[in-house]
Structures are given as C-alpha cells and as structure tokens.
Amino acid sequence: MANTKMAQLLFGNVDKTPExxxxxxxxxxxxxxxxxxxxxxxxxxxxxxxxLFAAFVASKTAGDDGVFYLRIEDTDKKRExxxxxxxxxxxxxxxxxxxxxxxxxxxxxxxxxxxYTQSRRNHIYHAYVKSLVEQGxxxxxxxxxxxxxxIRKEQEAxxxxxxxxxxxxxxxxxxxDEAQAxxxxxxxxxxxxxxxxxxxxxxxxKDEVKGKVEMPENILDIVLLKKxxxxxxxxxxxxxxxxxxxxxxxxxDEWLSSVPIHLQLFYVLGFKxxxxxxxxxxxxxxxxxxxxxxxxxxxxxxxxxxxxxxAGYPAGAVNEYLMTIANSxxxxxxxxxxxxxxxxFDFKLSKMxxxxxxxDMVKLHDISKTYISTMxxxxxxxAVTAWSAEYxxxxxxxxxxxxxxxxxxxxxxxxxxxxxxxxxKWSEVKDYIAYFYDELFDGKYDWAENMSKDxxxxxxxxxxEIYNHQSPSEDWFPQxxxxxxxxxxxxxxxxxxxxxxxxxxxxxxxxxxIRVAVTGRLNTPDxxxxxxxxGEDKVKERINTAIEGI
Length: 550
Ligand code: GLU
What we know:
By secondary structure, this protein is of the alpha/beta class. The chain folds into four domains: about 1-15 and about 120-280, Rossmann fold (3-Layer(aba) Sandwich), CATH 3.40.50; about 290-375, Glutamyl-trna Synthetase, Domain 2 (Glutamyl-tRNA Synthetase, domain 2, Orthogonal Bundle), CATH 1.10.1160.10; about 375-435, no CATH class; about 455-550, Arc Repressor Mutant, subunit A (Orthogonal Bundle). The chain has helices at about 5-10, 20-25, 50-60, 85-95, 120-135, 145-160, 175-185, 235-245, 260-270, 305-310, 315-325, 330-335, 360-375, 375-390, 395-400, 405-410, 430-435, 455-465, 475-485, 495-500, 505-520, 525-535, 535-550, and strands at about 35-40, 65-70, 100-105, 110, 140, 190-195, 200-205, 210-215, 225, 250, 275-280, 285, 290-295. A four-stranded mixed β-sheet has the order 1-2-3-4. A three-stranded antiparallel β-sheet has the order 5-6-9. The protein has a two-stranded antiparallel sheet with strand order 7-8. It is elongated and about 110 Å long. The termini are far apart. The structure holds glutamic acid. Glutamic acid binds near residues 40, 73, 237 and 249.
C-alpha cells in the first residue's frame, strides 16, 4: 500500500528519488570480474594494526583491475576525534596503501562516486528512507528512551531477544494522521525498518573467508535514521556499498553477526548484496595467561600503526609481513621469487585463515631484515634520512654532514649475492653505523677472550707498521696471514686445528684483533671495506687509541 502521505509528511523537502541516484551512480564499467572493495573506518584517528590489515586485504582484493576506495563512516559523531580523517588517510599512506577514491585529507576527496564521507550524504539516505516509508517498509517510531529502557528490562527478565520487534514495535502501524499529530506536538522520532524477518527464519550465505554461514534471520525493526536525521551505520553502509558498487565487503569478523541485518537491508532496498569476507582478528599470545587474545589497543604498543613508523620498519617490510598473515602460501612464493614485487603474488581471500593469525614480532623483524638487505644503497640512504629527520635528529645530522660518506657506509656488502641482514628497522641504524662516527664510537673494545693483552698489543703494533691503505682488497687477508705467521699464529684454522700446540691461534684471530681495534666489535661486515670507508688516518688513529687503552 503506497504510503505517500507519510513519506511526504516525514520527507517533504526531499526532491530526489532513488532512481535519480541510480542514474548519478552508474555502473563502473570495469572489466568482467574486476572487484570493488573499500576500507570504511570511523574517523577515530587511531589506526589499529588489525584495521590496517583489513585495508591491506581490501586493497589486495581489488588488485590492479579493480577499485579500492576509502569511505569515512562518521555517523557516530560521539566517537569522532579532531584530525581523525587525516590520521586514517596518512596511516594508510605510510604503508603504501593508497585508495584510488575517497578522502585524501580532512576536506578533499577524489573519485566520481562520492561524497565518500557519510556525514555529507544525508540527502541521499533520506531519499532511500523516504522511498521505504512510501512502500510501507519503514515507519516513524516515537518511543522515548524511557520506554525503550522499560522494554529492555522486561526482555531481560523474560530472557527474550532484546530489541524492538513484534509486540514491542509499538508504532509499526502508525497512520500518517497520528504521526502528523505527534510531530505537531513536538514529539521526536526515529525511522525504523519494518523488518520482514520471521521469528524462526534462518538465512545462509557464503562468506569468502569463513565459508558457508547460517544464522537466524533478522527480526528487529532496526533504526534507519536517528532522531537528528542522521543514518545508522547499518543503513548508511547498505546505501553506500550499493551506490559505490562495492562487490566485496572485507572487514573484521566482529561484523559477522550483523550480516542478517545487512542482507535484509539490501533485500528491502532492492539491491544486489555484495560478497562478504569477514577477516579473523590478529591474535597475540598473552604473557600473563599464556592464552591467546586479540591484539589490544590498550595492552600492546604494536596495535597502533604509529608503532611501526616510529620503530622504522619500512612500509614494504610491513606489507610483506601482512601478506604472510593474509595468505600462508606467500612465504613459499617469496622464497621462490625473491626479487619479484609483492604485487605479482596471487592473493586470494579463500586462502585466508579462518582462525586468527598470531602476531609475531620476531617474524616481522626477520622479514624486515631480509627486505632491507635487498634495498639498494640509495633506497637505504633515503629511508634512513627520512626516518631520522623525524625520529632521531642526532643520527640525521651525522648522516647529512657528509652524505657521500653515509652512502659509502650503507653500500658495504650491499648489492652482492648474499647481502648481510644486519638492519631490521631504521632505529637500529645508529648502532649499526656507530663506529663510523667518533661521536657515536663508544671506545669499548670487545676483545676475544682467548687473546692475551700482550698478543693484542703485538698484533696491533706490528699491523700499524705494515698497514698499507692503498693495497687492494685481495691483498688484505694475505697480509694478515703473513703477520699471523710472523707472530706465531697459524695461517688458517685448518693448520691450527692440525697442530694446536704449535700456534697461539690462527689468522682469523689476528684479523679479529684488528677488527676490534678499528670498530670496537668482534662482528662486523667486511673489515677491508670498513677501513677503506673510514680512511687511512682514522684507521691509524683507531689502532693507536686501542693500543694505548690496553
Ligand atoms: N565503520 C565500520 C567500522 O568502524 C566499518 C564496518 C564495515 O566495513 O562494514 O569498523
């Protein structure tokens, strides 16, 4: 029964119809099978690692053919914080997750299917609610907060499903005249869905991650428009996902229980429902209980994406880690395709784990070490400069003092077949390069325990005499070997092992002494390259200082 009078009463100023909007938001004309996905956060400013993961999954699902857009779901103004939108936009950008459409800062958006901010779409939602009212599928409800609280109490006491439905849906059949009288009286109202659900009805659908899911049908007359005329999240998302032509809704599985409402909304609105992919949360081993729990904003620093930027994990490394959580076959693929772009990996929703993946910091760190080891010198230099400009001014000014010198440091053992994996995050760089800068060189010496002071002194004193900064790298170790022989050390570990009583040690031990004198450390990248980078004067100075300190 057409309820034109009621529709006119509630939405007299709405002049557009759903048909108008259907024309304004035409089919996207994408290639067959191309997917449209979105990330739809509330602008709370805090980007949780789990949300980043959801955005990552959405963007990978869209891939190159599809569209991945950002929609700001700000229907709940209470939860919104200042700069919340920009926090979300930048949070994604830091990890190279760049939506093709949507908000690009607090005020501007790109894309032809906007506005992408729900608070700017009220006129659209009103047109659709008006049409539902007109079709008798929605109605104004004048129940007060007190009445609703009473009902909830009664339902709790009777152990009934909480909410407004059946006998509790007092205004389901309100007439336009009654509504008019109440409005004239200044009574406030919300607009509710007249749910077509049956009390014992069940629905089933195929979730792209969870597989077949069966649930009770929705029977609640949920709120579509709140008293102030703004939509509820449930209603807004249905209209938006329809008009923006979302094909796949990827989101956290805390939304799984809302699917019956959502599918019903798509149904009453006459929309084709999108496919759903509900992603399991990222879990964490709880140090206190030993059990598993969700990664928590309150307890875990790594739950905030700002953690990764501050620690200096490269965006690419975090992406690699996200993909290992997303698809367990990624790691094998990566081993077989070491230098390929991650975009070549064939990500599949169906390969996502149904149970929550466990967050593993050690693994992230390992992945990051490998990732950084494949970066070239300029990339490392640029990343370290950018990171240190923000998070470590001292490091930044040291590097900027002589950028060629810094690049020579970063180039050591980089670009070869088996690059070293010394750096896992940019905050480790300072320690890694410390002995290249007097300001950072702490003058502590990690002498090997099996070396006597006299031997150390003898090695260094003699090495200082024979050290030739001009000699090519292939001559370096032979020189150390002859020094070793001269001072009673074997030329090689093999010779030493064959007759340990005749030697004090072997050439490797001698090299170790030189290494510690120059760098303070027993373990470093190629010592010859280090010395070439430090320069002749500095090497000699270091050796002298080391001798004096013994
Ligand atoms: N705005 C919802 C949230 O804050 C998004 C739910 C969805 O993606 O449908 O998580």
